[in-house]
Amino acid sequence: MLKNSSLENEFMMYREIIHAVDIHRKAMKFSQYMFSNFQGSHFWLLIVGVVCLSLNLYGISETMLTNDVEQFITHFVFISATFVYFFIANYIGQKVTNHNEHVFFTVYNIRWYLAPLHVQKLILFLLQNGSRTFCLSIGGIYSLSNELFAMLTKASISYFTVVYSMQQ
To answer: TM spans, by residue (predicted)?
Structure first.
């Protein structure tokens, strides 16, 4: 009776790990598929967004001299919308990366040495997949992350200062 219960537990563990591996694989594949559909347009949106952000920052600096409240609000709304887009897109990419790392650390911290050999092999498979960082990248150049958000913001402000200094 005890032996039968042990075999049943082992089978349940094996089946649940197979299910977890399959769900994780499908989630990664789905994320890559969804992102690959708009990867090209997202790249151009980032470039246009940096240019628009820089020019709208310059527009705000000019409207502060003329005290035109309507123009100030218009530029402010465009800047806010651009920042919101940059933040949300990069936040989603960061969450995907963080979730993948969480799965890896969860698998890494389980007591795999207590599991049967065939279950240990499945855990090893998850560890090998999780050891590589999974991120949504734009053409393999930039990964959507909080770091990219900061870089885009920094680039926009730098371009604004160049345009502003050239006009002075």
So the answer is: 43-60, 72-92
